[in-house]
Design a protein that fits this description.
single chain, alpha/beta, 4 domains, 3-stranded antiparallel beta sheet
Amino acid sequence: MVPRETIRNHAAFIWSVADLLRGDYKQSEYGKVILPLTVIRRLDCVLEPTKDAVLSRHKQLAGRIENLEPVLRAAAGDLPFYNTSPLTFTKLLDDPSTIADSLSLYVGGFSSAAKDVIDKFDFPIQIDRVRRADLLYQVVGKFADVDLHPEVVSNIEMGYLYEELIRRFSELSNETAGEHFTPREVIRLMVNLLFIADDETILTRPGIVKTLCDPACGTGGMLSVAEEYLRELNPQARLEVFGQELNAETYAICRSDMMLKGQDASHIAYGNSFSEDHHEGERFDYLLANPPFGVEWKKVEDAVKTEAQTKGFSGRFGAGLPRINDGSFLFLQHMISKMKRPQDGGSRLAIVFNGSPLFTGAAGSGESEIRRWIIENDWLEAVVALPDQLFYNTGISTYFWIVTNRKSPERRGKVQLVDARELFVKVRKSLGEKRKEISAGQIDEITRLCGDLQEGEKVKILPNQAFGFLRITVEQPLRLRWEITDETIQVTLEAKALQKQPEQVRGLLRELLAERLGSLFENQKEIVKALGPRIADAGLPVTAQKAIWSTLAVRDPDAPVVTDRNGNPEPDADLRDQENVPLPAVPVPFEEDPTERFTTLEYRTAAED
């Protein structure tokens, strides 16, 4: 068991640096200094036993071998990082007057992977900023006093320590926290549901190795909780985690966290998952994500549309594209593309959505087609409705979608709906928009509700067909009569096509219509026969003549049905109606006269009703 009290004490000591920064930094900015220095101090402690060997090998081979990295990593004990600077963290304190230059030189000596992480923190800017506040020597001195050697703080303990610092940083940054941080209890519930079908398998297999990916990994909280969960189930199991993150600072936090835990930090990629898929072609046992809600994807529109059009279902976005202002379904399709094939064991994924993916999009839209694709493939296992006000930067209602291509036999052809909206406790102090949390007991209850697969007050189990329906468009036939009254004459003369005509022509038309004031015609053919020749003689073009026949028409429920040239009834757009018929039901043809009511069918897969 990891000594949590020890971890908290170490974290409290490191965070005491904030006392020095207060006044020169906002609270929400403390992490910009504390987190990278924690990483640097840990790396320094880990590299200490092999430092001399690395320096010796570097001096011996510098300038003689083009790619020194594999050789120096071997000299560092096959660690994924090393440092070629003759300085160490404690030697930085030898001369207070050169502390800024020395720290910059020391950081510059790290191997490319480690330096990339430190650079993403914008650490050179922080060095200069702390130097100008005349605090750099004191801050470095604080970190030199903390012992982070592996024999004192193991990789697992270091991971917990770093996560504790990230948690404090996220709570102080709650004005933007929701963009990058997911509350830990939400992650724990999500991970529970992700692994719910595999607990027994994982528990009974020593040395089992599983893979997990988060394509919007933020600071890596989901990856860390998943790794912790698997370790609790089976200490001999190993979870290899992968991720990608767009924000430079949170990417640096996540990658450094993986580095400090002994995970392969190269699995954490930097860039936009849609336009720069750094895990292209890879497939994982598990995937999970809390992508940003309602964020438009216009910046990557060209890349996404090109892939959708050229690759179709062999790419990631073959099922359809959502509206430009919400990329949630792009994340889901991206994740589905990385599920293992069923013959290779299949995969499970969990994703956090707001209500938009459930309800947005009319029949035939991108959203509707994506939902249809998922349901028809029998991949949607469950939807869990969560309490509102769970996240730092939004109070809206949220949902977990559990998607898998390896449903258990009893779940096939079904979708489970779990209502967990009332399972929460109030937090003692609001953090941004977060005013509620899910307690440990409630996490267990929701997990049980999902795992039992039994209908009840909070659980509904529906067949896949219940999520699709036929949209029946009910048309009423168009019934018109043609009459010449003061009102229809005025409407005709105000028509756009008539407004363009010369005043003399419009005057002739007014006189012509006035002569037939009060006349009634049963169909357009009769009125054209009666007035057509004289209107043509007045010099009116065909477009204007068509406008006249249209504006003299009046809807009348007792008038004859208007038909096209083939004798088929014309629909009245003003009387059009739509009805939704569940897919299990067989549409029955209307027995009325087809001139009274007729229908068109359209497939639909959104639960908008």
